[in-house]
Amino acid sequence: MSLSAVVLLCMFGTVTSEACAVPSAQQWLVTGLQTQLENGVKQQSSPSPSVVMALNLAGGRDSTATKRLIQDIKGIKDMTSGKVALYVLSLQSFCVDPKDVPTAGGRVNVVSALEEKTNEEIKHYYDTGTPKTTNYQLALDILALCVEKSPDAKNAAATLIKIIKGCQSKGCFDVDTAAMVALALSCVHDGMSKGSKMEGAITETLRVITAQILDSQQESGIIGNIYSTGLAMQALSVTTEFYPAGAWKCTKTIDEVLRKMYEGAFTNPEAGSQILPSLVGKTYLDVATLNCFSDPNITVHYTVINQLIGPYFNYSITVKVPKGSVLLAALEAAQHVNPTIFSFQTESTSWGPMVISIHGVNGSSDDKTYWQFLSGEKPLDQGVGSYKPTDNEHIVAKFSTY
Ligand SMILES: *[C@@H]1O[C@H](CO)[C@@H](O)[C@H](O)[C@H]1NC(C)=O
Ligand SMILES: *[C@@H]1O[C@H](CO)[C@@H](O)[C@H](O)[C@H]1NC(C)=O
Ligand SMILES: *[C@@H]1O[C@H](CO)[C@@H](O)[C@H](O)[C@H]1NC(C)=O
User: Fold this and answer.
1) Residue nearest atom 3 in ligand 2 by C-alpha distance
2) If residue 321 lies in a helix (H) or strand (E), which one and from where to where?
3) Is 395 in the pocket of ligand 2 (CB under 6 A)?
């Protein structure tokens, strides 16, 4: 369930009709946090994956951070599983496929690295009774694997459920861990057919885990402590079907978070990165469905050169045309932008349109002159009506003789 659905539930679940979202009068606090995190990322040579992921979820994608993030992947072998999971999620939030990351040392599959690390966690659990790192990291691993639709997610989730069963009485899950478990299992649950044994086990665990998170809800609205509240909000917003309506006083939680934010509670970037997604109505699960920006246009550099008959000229322009356009479209775009210089005329032939004149200079059979089209220095083997330039291609129209 999305956070907006929670907003609706909260509206009907509380006595006041106030919506459970950041009130517009306090929106500036959220914008301020976002700006603060953005500035932090700009200054870091190694940006924190959780911070860039939070910013991407909030819609402020800083594409320069991608490169720096990718550079850091070379250290993947020495990272803990949870750190690798954060890289998987943050790359995905940039719409970079974590299964095929172009690094300086070749292409890297970060998802299969995570699968290996997760299997080590599980093996360690069966050997010693605890995961290699923490339950929190194991849950984060499962979340990232699930977001990437790795078949290993389900297996690891089964182990996590086992751990939780053995753990309940000892209360060995703090709010952060419980929230991460809820996010991970909720993701696995979403991709599952109803009624299976595994689905039943996940449902039962999510009931237990959400109850535990809600037990930590304080009168003030804080869940656990102020720093665990962000993740708890994310968890509770995707698991509403597993706890009673109205059990989470989400308006109170948001009000208190904003009050603490005003007092400067989230100046630490990691803390800020955990609270930001819930304040913009997003959770880590949304990383899977972020609308990846992709430019529908390609860039074409276009030069017209005449060194044959005076007055000589040599003009260049850069135009954008929709992907898949033929060269003629780029010529038209250039003419549209600067008709004085890039005007041209075509004649239709049985091979399609042929450019006979550019900038008032006509090809002539008497002089054996024509407009030759080249890609860089290589003559094109197709006409302007069928040749499709690629992104950043340099097309040259050169007045030539034959
Ligand atoms: C793509 O090109 C069209 C027309 O040239 C323009 O309207 C549109 O804004 C461009 N889109 C982007 C994302 O640059
Ligand atoms: C045309 O102009 C560009 C830069 O303005 C220059 O690099 C190029 O050599 C010129 N071409 C010719 C053939 O003069
Ligand atoms: C170039 O050709 C066009 C179209 O055939 C014609 O209208 C124009 O007068 C010609 N210009 C010159 C300078 O010959």
Assistant:
1) 314
2) strand 313-322
3) no
